[in-house]
Design brief:
single chain; 124 residues; alpha+beta; two-stranded antiparallel ribbon; 5 helices; 32% helix; 10% strand; globular
């Protein structure tokens, strides 16, 4: 299966993701989840980090809303979570940027790996 065209991938970044995560929770660990303009901060546990409103994380680095069965607020998750698609991220991030992100947050290696593994599930 050939990967989707760049314009199709760019359009997917603005849509609610239809990602088959299965048991994967790689994106729920050790990274900042930013609250966007459409997100009502009263609905979330959050703090300010480097000038940005971000969801709180547990001491182990996981998002405070991560449960044993996945996202505990999936239907009301911040817009960035609802749109996040590791497949698109893995296919559109330049290699030098990937290396930098992994240096900054080693968990991103797992996110990129998960995206590459699931890339074949993207529609043409």
């Amino acid at each position: 299966m050939k990967p989707p065209q760049a314009d199709a991938l760019a359009a997917r970044k603005q849509q609610v993701a239809d990602l088959p995560c299965g048991g994967c929770r790689a994106c729920c660990w050790h990274d900042r989840v930013f609250l966007g303009p459409a997100d009502d901060p009263r609905r979330y546990r959050w703090h300010v980090e480097d000038g940005y409103a971000v969801l709180d994380r547990r001491p182990d680095g996981a998002c405070v809303y991560l449960t044993n069965s996945g996202c505990g607020i999936h239907e009301q998750a911040p817009s960035i979570c609802r749109r996040f698609d590791c497949r698109v991220l893995a296919l559109t991030t330049p290699a030098d940027v990937m290396r930098l992100r992994v240096q900054q947050n080693p968990q991103m290696a797992e996110v990129y790996r998960a995206g590459r593994e699931r890339a074949t599930t993207l529609p043409d």
